[in-house]
TrEMBL record:
Zinc finger (dksA C4-type): 98-122
Keyword Transcription: no
Keyword list, A-Z: Metal-binding, Zinc, Zinc-finger
Descriptive protein name: TraR/DksA family transcriptional regulator
Span of domain Zinc finger DksA/TraR C4-type: 93-121
Superkingdom as given in the UniProt entry: Bacteria
Length: 128
């Protein structure tokens, strides 16, 4: 029978992952704030009523940029939520355990994708 240590990361290892996640969370929040401020600037600029055909072109570009930024903001918000959920898993002791296989996810994978819930083996099976 496998020892409990092989099924979970140690407190020290979890602290390393927590630091990585908090760092990514901070950077992700700054990026999201930047996207939101850019969106609000576009919205503020869109309120002036200048006449002419250039305004129509600008409106089209503004709309496309707003859509792109909105999608980017949504992806960033999802990333932040995933990171926050990973912190919850650290606290409740389920962090680093693959939800599909029940095995530990490799440290290399967790360092690269600290919010993942899938081992690389499970992820590859999903993509087949």
């Amino acid at each position: 029978m496998m020892s409990e240590e092989k099924k979970r990361y140690s407190e020290e290892e979890l602290k390393e992952f927590e630091a990585i996640i908090n760092d990514k969370l901070e950077k992700a929040q700054i990026a999201l704030d930047d996207i939101k401020s850019t969106l609000s600037r576009i919205n503020d600029n869109g309120t002036d009523n200048t006449a002419g055909s250039t305004k129509v072109l600008e409106d089209g570009a503004d709309t496309a940029e707003k859509e792109n930024l909105s999608q980017l903001a949504a992806r960033q918000q999802k990333f932040i939520t995933n990171l926050e959920n990973a912190l919850v898993r650290i606290k409740n002791g389920t962090y680093g355990v693959c939800v599909d296989t029940g095995n530990l996810i490799s440290k290399e994978r967790l360092r690269a994708v600290p919010h993942t819930m899938h081992s690389i083996e499970a992820k590859l099976k999903q993509n087949q």
